[in-house]
Amino acid sequence: LADGPSGLTYYPGTGLSADYLGHFFLCDFRGEASSSGIHTFTVKPKGASWELGPGAPFLWGALVTDCDFGPDGGLWFSDWVYGWEQTGKGRIYRAIDPQAQQTALVAETRAILAQGMDGRSIQELKELLGHPDQRVRQETHFALADRHAVSLLREVATQGTNLFARLHALWALGIAVRKDPTAQ
Fold first, then answer.
1. Which of 22, 87, 117, 142 has the most CB atoms around its CB within 10 Å?
2. pTM above 0.85, yes or no
3. What is the tens place of the pLDDT at every residue in 7-63?
4. Contact status, residue 67 vs residue 5, Cβ threshold 8 Å
5. Order of strands across the sheet with 37-46?
């Protein structure tokens, strides 16, 4: 897919159009801005593994070296500025979808990430395990593991109806049990 892969991230689920659900973003640094940019692609199952699915240029014409999604829902990326030489210069950009930025889900995600998980009730954390944003789910499962909420996590993992919540509950259980093998 890329001649100069230099950064990779996965769309967390909020901030851009729903068209990007399940997409990876790959920086392709080729030394010339005109031939460098960010690809977006999916993967599809192939037996017990994966193969490259459909891909397309997301943004082109920048010497991108890395990218990641910020809590604001934008795709932040670094630009090397010029060729292969070390100029001591660089730029940071943010790509956004103005329509997606106006949604209640993006505002909610920003607020949750800004507030963090401290001070939230176990019940609120249980609900957040199924949040549409991967970063919220991950922070939630870390918080529940830290609180040793093993019985709640076991309940969500075995009886939950949301696949993401079940997966994050399983990962949190793994963390909690590694920290305390006697956890019930």
1. 117
2. yes
3. 999 999 999 999 999 999 999 999 899 999 999 999 999 999 999 999 999 999 999
4. no
5. 5-10, 24-28, 37-46, 49-60
How many CB atoms neighbour CB 17 within 10 A?
A: 10
Residues 72-130 have pLDDT tens digits of: 889 999 998 887 888 888 999 999 999 999 999 999 999 999 999 999 999 999 999 99
64-69 sheet: strands from edge to edge: 64-69, 75-79, 91-95
Residues 66-90: b if buried by 16+ CB within 10 A, e if exposed: bbebebbbbbbbbbbeeeeeeeeee
| Whole-angstrom distance, CA of residue 76 vs CA of residue 84 | 21
What's the pLDDT score for residue 184?
Answer: 66
Find tokens 């609180």 and name the residue. Answer: 147
> Counting every residue, how long is the chain?
184
* AA identity, residue 120: R
Phi, psi of 167 (to 5 degrees): -65, -45
Query: What residue ranges in 4-107 does DSSP mark as E strands?
Result: 5-10, 24-28, 37-46, 49-60, 64-69, 75-79, 91-95
